[in-house]
Amino acid sequence: MAPASPFARKARIIIRELDLTRLVEEIPTNPAASEELHRANPLRKIPALVLDDGSALIDSPVICEYLNELGGGKFFPGMSIWREVSGRWRALGLQALGDGIAEAAVACIYEGRRPEEQQSKEFIDKQIGIITRGLDALERAKFAKDPTIGEIAVACAIGYLDFRMPDLGWRETRPKLASWYEAFARYPSMQATMPANLT
Ligand SMILES: N[C@@H](CCC(=O)N[C@@H](CS)C(=O)NCC(=O)O)C(=O)O
What we know:
Layout (H helix, E strand, L loop, with lengths): L5 H12 L17 H6 L7 E3 L5 E3 L1 H11 L17 H25 L8 H20 L8 H16 L10 H10 L3 H4 L8
Antiparallel strand pairs: 1-2
Helix pairs in contact: 1-3, 1-6, 4-5, 4-6, 5-7
The protein binds glutathione.
């Protein structure tokens, strides 16, 4: 994991919510340099979860669902075709939206770290477009009172935007999302996993 990663943060929140801190070790990892990560994840991305038998899970949705099972959590609502809008599909759809926003934000930040003459304004504009439309969709979204993986993913994406793109000004035109996030950010598990500038 890395303290700034919005994807690792999803798992770190579930670990705290389900009291799994004694079962799961969080290892600060530089995705470019860590051989342990490269052995665990051929995609060389964090998070990756190495299990006791030496096998590894990759991709935050998979890791979070595993942790949810391990801790007997309710962050992944059960399968039901009668509850498409309020159940599992809503939660997974919201997770996809949050993760998509986070992916675009991470891509912007990585692009900004390349030598200036190699950076593409077109690429950055495209990512900003994804972030903007994603946030607009979230302003219209329905959030559950009992948080699911969808709410967690959205909160981690917004936390990352606030951390890496503090001048985005997304709150100005999205009052509903802003007030939902303000309340969500008060959860102790959110407070304990605030992104830190260590990577
Ligand atoms: N879909 C993956 C995305 C993970 C991801 O992009 N992680 C970033 C850090 S926030 C990473 O490790 N990037 C390293 C790289 O792309 O080289 C997930 O949900 O876990």
